[in-house]
Structure formats: C-alpha cells, structure tokens
Amino acid sequence: MAYGAGPELWLVRHGETEWSRDGRHTSTTDLPLTPEGEAVAEGLSAVLGDEHFDLVLTSPRLRARRTAELTGFGSAETDDDLVEWDYGSYEGITTAEIRETVPGWTVWSHPVPGGESADAVAERLDRVVARARSVDQALVFGHGHALRALAARWLGLPATDGRLFRLDTATVSVLGFERESPTILHWNA
C-alpha cells in the first residue's frame, strides 16, 4: 500500500548472519544467513507480497540476494551501488575491538583504513536515489550502514547522518514524500 504522494523507496535490510548477530563489521565477506535469519526474512513476504514495485534492486552480496529470494523477489536486479560500506581493515572486527586502538571510533565519524569514505558511499547511493525517484515505487535489499546512509541521502542529508537511524536485520522501512519534502514514512519495522 502506497503511503504518500510521490515516489517511494522501500528498504529491506538482509536477514541475520553470524557476523551481524555478533556485531562484526561485514562488507565484502559473503556470509550466508543463519537459520533464524532465513526464517525471519521469509516472514517479510507477508509485508511485501501485496505490493507492486516498478524497480527491485539488491546488493550482489549473498545475504541480500538470499533475503530477496526468501521474500519472493528472487529476480531482483543486482546493483553494485547497494553493497555495504567497505570496512577495509576493520572487516570482521567489532566496534569494541576497534576502539581498543581508536577510542570513540564509529564508521560515521572516523576514517576506515583501506575502506570507503562517507563521500564515496554517498556518491554511489545518490545513484540509487536517482533510480528510485524515477519510478513510483522501488524496493531495495541491502545492508545496515549503507541503507542508513541511503535514507540520509534520500532526505538530502550527509551520508554520515545515517548514524541517526537504527536499522535491525530483516526489517522494512519506507521512504517517500510529504508534498514536495522527502521524508521517512515507515522505519525499522
């Protein structure tokens, strides 16, 4: 069911993986969903099943593609712009472990050695925003930090403002418009 006037972008964060469950930064490591992650992702089909999407995209990572498949969107187009923020040297490491050597570190406020900058993430996610705004209703399957940054870019905010939006695994969020203003219509459900 469409929520508002203007284009809508529905976001689905992939189901739980072993590393997402354990708080490990996961960008390029291609992990499968846990059995729990598969079950919860499959349940999202009830939320998405009655919707018509003009554009359905997924990150090429296994965890996002499998979530798309389990929700009934196995034919989603892969889009490299939807990959997770590249954590570089911090791949597989928790925030607590990183803070042992870099106090106060967050992906939103500090450099990521060997990884992506917030500006690089914003540049590729702006392409997703443009594609989504060219249709009435789009659906994307992706990852925690990247989807949070995508929401910020939809709203016209810096990618780093994605820090303001908690996003759990196997959740659905909807971005849209109120009159001419981009807005969050539904978040982290």
From TrEMBL:
A matching Pfam family: His_Phos_1
Residues that bind substrate: R63
CDD domains: HP_PGM_like
GO biological process per UniProt: regulation of phosphorelay signal transduction system
InterPro entries, sorted: His_Pase_superF_clade-1, His_PPase_superfam, PGM_Phosphatase
GO molecular function: protein histidine phosphatase activity
Protein name: Histidine phosphatase family protein
Phylogenetic classification of the source organism: Bacteria, Bacillati, Actinomycetota, Actinomycetes, Propionibacteriales
